[in-house]
Amino acid sequence: MSIPNHILEQLNSQADLVSIIGRHTTLKRAGGEFKGCCPFHGEKSPSFYVNPQKNIYHCFGCGVGGNAISFFRDYENLTFIEAVNELSKQTGIEVPKEEQQNVSYQRSTPKPAVPETTAPKSSAPPSVPNPAIDQSNLSQNSTNQGGVEQSHVVQASYDDAHSYDDYPPLDAYDSAPYPTDSYDSEYQDDTSYPPAWLSDSDEITNLHGMDNNTDADGNLYDLLEQIQQFYQHSLTTHPHAKHYFLSRGITEDIFETFGLGYAPFGWQHLEHQFPQDIEGLKALGLVRQSESGRDYDLLRDRVIFPIRDNQGRTIGFGGRALDDEVKPKYINSSDSPVFHKQHVLYGYYESRQQRANDWLVVEGYMDVIALYQAGIYGAVASMGTAINESQISRLLTLNPTLTLSFDGDSAGQKAAWRTLEVALPVLADDKELRFLTLPNNHDPDTFIKSQGGDAMRAQITNAMPLSQYIFAYLSERYDLTLVEGKAKLMSQVRALTMALPKGSSFKYLLNNDVYQKLGGKRSQNVEAKDALLDFDGDMTISQQLQLCFLFQPRALLEDPIESIWQQAGISDLQLPAHIKQKAASDTLRPLAWEDLQDTDLLDIVSTIKRCLRYLPTDANAAAHFILSNVQPMTQETLSRSWSGFYKTLTARNILSLDELVENLVMQLLKLHLQKKMQDLIKNPDHIKLAIVRKQSQLLNDWLRAQQAEQSAQMTTVKS
Prior knowledge:
Layout: H1 5-14, H2 17-22, E1 28-30, E2 33-36, E3 48-51, E4 56-59, E5 65-66, H3 68-74, H4 80-91, E6 104-105, H5 135-140, H6 151-159, H7 170-175, H8 180-186, H9 196-199, H10 202-208, E7 218-219, H11 220-237, H12 239-247, H13 252-258, E8 261-263, H14 269-273, H15 278-283, E9 287-289, E10 295-297, E11 302-308, E12 314-321, E13 330-332, E14 345-346, H16 348-353, E15 359-362, H17 365-373, E16 379-382, H18 389-398, E17 401-405, H19 410-423, E18 432-436, H20 444-451, H21 453-461, E19 464-465, H22 466-475, H23 483-497, H24 505-517, H25 524-535, H26 541-551, H27 560-567, H28 577-582, H29 599-611, H30 619-627, H31 632-651, H32 658-682, H33 686-709
Parallel strand pairs: 15-16, 15-17, 17-18
Antiparallel strand pairs: 1-2, 2-3, 3-4, 4-5, 6-7, 8-11, 9-10, 11-12, 12-13, 14-16, 18-19
Helix pairs in contact: 1-4, 3-4, 17-20, 20-21, 23-24, 24-33, 25-31, 26-29, 26-31, 26-32, 32-33
């Protein structure tokens, strides 16, 4: 299967490479890059770098490097097609089953220019007769070949708030008689075709490598660049369009930075400017066909915002009506072989050029531009659709904190909430989502004009954390004076947190935080932890666990280590065949208490297991029975602490330490595996090291999952 290059470029540029590689080695931020130990070869000091801006990796130790596809192919042993399909799943970019679309199109020979004498110059584009339409005014407003309007006529109609209703509706255009010679003469004032500024300029021709040879295929990227220059040139020749940007506070240097332009009046100005590229214009969706079979331009009499990809290439256009009464106010060019709305963020390329560090999602083009002009880089906007999970994941890779700024009205807050729901699955514990709602129904554009850039920076700095936003948003929708209202709010919070990544500790913490805000009591496990810390905060994990076993010896009825080993999936460890073959048998066996090399802890555990069936039912009596059977050194150490510990727990009415025991055992296992990895790095054994790393990864995943599941133990909220 042949996959178009532009699809491969999109897959590689949209892939979350840091996350992909981060599953195999620990990566830490180092300036604008991420740094870690190379997963391709064993090394003690990190020399492996991932650049999230360019989405490439390189190891200065072994020299390996590449992009997302090459990593899947070289490290995970996937075929090229398998790697492409995997990235397609992760990014949502569809890979064609066959080679159907690419960026080339067949250029055609343009129709001969119609001589000026073939039709009266005063004739207007035909339409259904309508006495309400001033046909002479419509005729005057049409553009010539160079895209230059009769400025005095246009300015007069614009200043007089000329109604767009005066132009024939599209259905009238479809049904009207259509004398081609009359129509052509209306859109040309001389015999130059295309206009001299576009076709005769060596600079433009050389810039894009295109000429008038119709035998050569056209390239959609080159065509888009020429269209962008056409729109940009049109802005300079249409004062009313330029005035729109200036009246919004946009300076002329920003015109160039963002390539702002103007699409003139007229149903077919693009076809007249690019007569050899009709097929390309249609492939881009900039020229469409009506039901009657006639072609027309999508963007007419609108200021233009070029949309760029991650490499800075123009891939589409957004057009805004000059009159706020015109609906729709914004139109984006449709999806094409080079433009897929759901994968593009407006302003991303420009912000990246400024090495933006803090990223802000806003609602519109003008917000992005106003923030950029104020020196606040990193603002992006989606293409008229809600921002999606892969885009949020990409921004959180560049910076672990992402701010969302939506309008304060009902529609804006609904959009913010939808974005929150989309973001939850990629919101790992080290990521943070913040929410900014500007005062007095401002958006970033109007707020900067009113208050200035420094005030906007302060607003961004003080944006509301996710936990506060959720509670504030839901509090307005439920009556918290009623138990029923509190229960409904708590139910929705639980439903939200279920979307968080597996093993998220934020899931537990958020549920517990909201629960307490609603008046709920803290869980026994939290109380037990606090009691242990209050009793003696300087005790080691091992000493804490020994006291817990004394208080609750039945916790050893089922060995905690074996239980954790099984639940975490370590007992059924999945390893590559070549590692299994080379691994020693004792490397894969379950961990035992003896392996922890803690004499006192082993003494307590062994004694309890030996004496368990003979212990008294009273907790204090059982503890003294155990102490009388341990080694003298262990007995002396624990006897000093037991009495105070027992009184602290009973004073708080704590009956069960199950979760606390499990947590303490987990911490001991983590420390043991970390120490083991350090020893194996000092005395290299790559097979054992690979196994221990896998065991440690599974253990950490299970710990996060356990912390998250504790949120489900919260009982019905009480007022």
